[in-house]
């Protein structure tokens, strides 16, 4: 892989179909915790247990009491320069082009920054669905852990529409992501190791479509990879430079 030490713009506007994959590193500068790395959520026992689909099945109230307060915490922070640079890049697209953000984040910060074409492959913390019936998922920002919200149809507990560990990602999002990748000519992964499925397969799909594949993250990749270029550093610094 070719490690770029000098940050030169990617020339995003020259590409017809741009796909950006984002992970927790994009939200870090907004003050949200990341999952991996030192101090990351995955190093804290409660997070591991409460982010597991098996815990949701066995003790849904514990999972809800863990997740619902996040809604308040996330609403209290703002999109950072990485988010706003991606929104600006989408806003200046011309006819016949596309700019799709596929995000592993459940925080809705891309949409709050202004991105329109966002695929949430791990769902959204700001939608709820029923733990029992097939009530369609709906927007929900309630965060009261004393009065856990219940399904209006069957009275079972509602849960955030997010993909927990061991659960399948939403089929529609996975389908939309793969469709975007089939035609993309520039693929940029930002703030994610890309090692978690289904994201791990996305760079393969983009490379197969013939896209330029660029990796932007704090940590270098250590595996053989379909990325051909990498920029190492903070998303909130690199993204405005690369997408400007
Ligand atoms: Zn229900």
What brief labels describe this structure?
single chain; 244 residues; alpha/beta; Rossmann fold; SIR2/SIRT2 'Small Domain'; 2 domains; seven-stranded parallel β-sheet; three-stranded antiparallel β-sheet; 10 strands; 32% helix; 19% strand; binds zinc ion
How does this structure look, described?
With 244 residues, the protein is an alpha/beta fold. The protein has two domains: 1-32 and 79-122 and 169-244, TPP-binding domain (Rossmann fold, 3-Layer(aba) Sandwich), CATH 3.40.50.1220; 35-76 and 127-162, 2-Layer Sandwich (SIR2/SIRT2 'Small Domain'), CATH 3.30.1600.10. The chain has helices at residues 24-27, 45-50, 53-58, 60-75, 81-91, 109-113, 171-183, 199-208, 235-242, and strands at 2-3, 17-22, 98-103, 118-120, 123-130, 138-139, 158-162, 186-190, 212-217, 229-232. A seven-stranded parallel sheet has the order 1-10-9-8-2-3-4, with helices on both faces. Strand 8, helix 8 (199-208) and strand 9 form a beta-alpha-beta unit. Helix 5 packs parallel to helix 9 (235-242) and helix 7 packs parallel to helix 8. The protein is elongated and about 55 Å long. The mean pLDDT is 89. The structure holds zinc ion.
